[in-house]
Amino acid sequence: MPVPQAIPSAGRPLSAGAIALMLMLCLTWGFNQIAVKLVLPDIPPMLQAMIRSTGALPVLFIIGTLRGVKFFERDGTWRAGLIAGLMFGIEFVLIFQGLRLTSASRAVVFLYTAPFFVALGSYQVLGERLGASQWLGLAISFAGVALAIGVPQPNVDSHVLLGDLLIVGGAGLWAATTLVAKGTRLRFAAPEKALGYQVATSIPILGLAAWLFGESITHTPAPLSLALMAFQAIWVVGTTFTLWFALVKAYSASKLSAFTFITPLFGVVGSYFIMHDTLSLTFGAAAVLVIAGLFLVNRPSQTAAAPRDALLNVTKT
Question: Rounded to whole angstroms, how far apart are CA atoms 295 and 223?
Fold first, then answer.
């Protein structure tokens, strides 16, 4: 797909405000994994994902309408929006089905291969180029995630490997959705509209998946489950995903994706306080690796700028 205008250089560091916002998003997404797990006894995964998309859609319309967003205006974004929506829906199908086959710890590690897909795709599609130190930063952060979560090896069979592959596929689609949002006319749409395409398209996809896998709600969900579903729909999907796409439109996709390495660390800390899991010195070392890697990724690089940046004026939206 053609790139409609120049993309901010990968050599430009994120602003302090963007970093603070990304930390808030990662904190939310880290806790969201716990929320999903707590709701599973009452609502199975595909139905859970479909319900939260259904609940998030009116939230997006309300927020967008208050901000004057024209959701149904013909602006040439529907094709890119539909493609992003298909990817968005299938991504969650792959991730949740992968979790049925592989362990949660392995799934987290494989899911966070997404920043590598974004970095590669950004170079090929968007013209963003990372320097050697920034690629090293990605590798160090990923090593920190693997160290924090651990990748247990016993009893790894073909089913587990298939689950790993499904998770990697989900990570690839997460990255592809980011690139579509950044590198097509969808970049010009308001964040609420860009996300609205994806949420609306994901509803029938997730509903079909729930039917194919025979999911059903067999009893009235507990009040906690209903509250956590509202949290997922209103805050996670309706609000934080909108903020994510707003950031993607304004900053380097590669550097923003690198910050998602912090998400599983917040998930581990949240599990310590909520699920009473344990923390160790190994986790502390892992956190240091992730932070050091992110420092390298966000450090300005003299060789990281894309050739087109020297020829085109770049504006943030």
Answer: 42
Interacting residues of 37 by C-beta distance below 8 A, sequence separation 6+: none
CA distance 247 to 233: 20
State the distance between the two ends of the chain, measured CA to CA, in whole angstroms.
Answer: 20
Q: Which tokens belong to 76?
A: 């040439």
Percent of residues in the chain assigned helix, strand, coil, to nearest 5: 75, 0, 25
Tens digits of per-residue pLDDT, 199-254? 999 999 999 999 999 999 999 999 999 999 999 999 999 999 999 888 888 888 87
Task: Confirm if 88 and 53 have CB atoms less than 8 A apart.
Answer: no
CA 38 to CA 87: how far, in whole Å?
Answer: 26
Could you read off the pLDDT of 103-122 as tens digits, one per residue? Answer: 666 777 778 778 888 887 87
Residues contacting residue 116 through CB under 8 Å, at least 6 positions apart: 138, 142
Q: Report the alpha-carbon distance of residue 78 to residue 65 in Å, rounded.
A: 18
Six-digit token pair at 194? Answer: 């860009």
Distance CA 270, CA 172 (A): 26
Secondary structure (DSSP) of 127-161: -----HHHHHHHHHHHHHHHHHH----TT--HHHH
Are 202 and 55 in contact by the 8 Å Cβ rule? The answer is no
